[in-house]
Amino acid sequence: MxxxxxxxxxxxxxxxxxxxxxxxxxxxxxxxxxxxxARVTDRPLVSTPPVSPLKAEAALILDANATTGEAQVFTAxxxxxxxxxxxxxxxxxxxxxxxxRERAKHRITQNAPVLLQAFENGRMAITxxxxxxxxxxxxxxxxxxxxxxxxxxxxxxxxxxT
Length: 162
Fold this sequence. Notes:
Blueprint: H1 18-40, E1 54-64, E2 71-75, E3 80-84, H2 86-106, E4 114-119, E5 124-127, E6 134-136, H3 142-161
Antiparallel strand pairs: 1-2, 1-4, 2-3, 4-5, 5-6
């Protein structure tokens, strides 16, 4: 008794055209070549945030619940500045998770303060002096940057009251 060979099925209409696959491969290789060239020749970075004088700065300790998105923000001396629910603290909790991950990679204590900085050109950044991590908050949208702007304003008000 002969065994029937399995029938090979191919539907040309559902296959990705070879020219498209070759084009994608060419794009990946070109990108890799450009990045390698820039790295080897020490080409300066051109897509960095503009440099501007520092307008205001505050040292803050961020604490967040990764599950719920609730966040607490403390001043550098440990005074509670604000406790935020998941709706108001979601972005701040997300930033705290990134900082916590960076600190875990560097095996650094989790409760050290970070610097919240506002610049003359309107941009804001959060910097972790312990790890060197820094993020330009404007890259996350005006609403999210505004959450940190409110924190900075609260610290300025609190300093004025002491």
